[in-house]
Amino acid sequence: MQADRSSCCYLCNSRDVRELWHATDKKFRGPGKFTYWRCSRCGLLVLHPRPTDEALSQYYPDYVTPVQPSSSFRQRLKRMVAEDWYGYGADRAAFIGLLRKAVTFPLRRLLHQVPRKRQGGRVLDIGCGSGGYLAFLANLGWTSYGVEPGPNSRGYAQRELGLTVHQGQLAACNFPDQWFDVVTMWHTIEHVPDPLSVLREIRRILKPDGAVMLSTPNIDCADAVFFQDCWYALDAPRHCFLFSSRTIRLLLEQSGFTISRLWYQYHPTVPARSLLYWLEEGGMTRTRNTLVRWSRSLELGMAISTPLRRLLGQGDTIYLEARMSPSEAGA
Ligand SMILES: [Zn+2]
Which CATH architecture has domain 67-174? Predict the structure, then answer.
């Protein structure tokens, strides 16, 4: 039986777990207050009690994010970056290759979530939404699969993009052992009620030399420390777990993975929207409403201040790539 999360840490089993925040759904203004607990030993933050799946479903709007066709300027530019910097390019004369790299150099970080090319590679994106990321990988030659609980976004990915997208939870998909080269979870691991079991299922369906790539909000970033329960990426009650680089490492190690690469991103929307939540919570509604009208400028200001945020601490989002731990890969 799973230990009571309010008295025992999900990751390190410490009994020193303390109530930290009573948060509300600030994004969609759903009803209720939600309690987050922090482990004093490892720092993991957990929502407890977690509402039932049925109760939580009312907090998830199932919207479709339309995907631009591969012939659009933006998609063609992304493809150029993938070809020049991520190993997807055809052989070219050295001079042409250098010229293209000079043009696409400033854009190379746009595709930091794209895995290196694998001949005949199979990829699974868990929580794939409307399928934009998967469609891009399919265009690069990957055999692409998705898992998505939202019927509208799943339907769009299947119907409009022709993708293979499974319904519901990963465990119910029954993929064969060692089937995928890469499994991705972008902003998904913090939503699932039992991330250890999801990662262990990923370990089963991943090839021994495969990689898992994921992103998750970083509870150790300066924005979280300053804005606390008004931190935009807390996203109560949709986020059940909030990780730091330390606790996400612990989670992966307990699932049989070793992190091979970890990097941070600084998104201007996180401090900008956290500030709006903070003003509203503090009763400064007029100031908040004025800033909402200038939200584009506010986000631009935050984007310009990214170098300062880098000085203040870690980024708001952790990105990582992990491989099976040597003992697991050889098992
Ligand atoms: Zn702990």
Answer: 3-Layer(aba) Sandwich (3.40)
| Residue 13 CA, ligand 1 centroid: distance in Å | 6
Listed in order, the ranges of the chain carrying CATH 3.40.50.150 are 181-326
Superfamily of domain 181-326: Vaccinia Virus protein VP39 (3.40.50.150)
Task: Give the Å distance between the CA of 8 and the centre of ligand 1.
Answer: 8
**From the CA of 39, how far away is ligand 1's center (Å)?**
5
d(CA 322, CA 313): 23
Asked whether 249 and 218 are in contact (CB, 8 A), the reply is no
CA of 194 to the centre of ligand 1 (A): 15
For ligand 1, the distance from its centroid to the CA atom of residue 193, given in whole angstroms, is 16
**Per-residue pLDDT reduced to its tens digit, 288-306:** 888 778 778 878 888 888 8
How far is Cα 159 from Cα 123, in angstroms, rounded to an integer? 19
Q: Average pLDDT in the 193-215 region?
A: 97
> How far apart are alpha carbons 216 and 211 in whole angstroms?
17
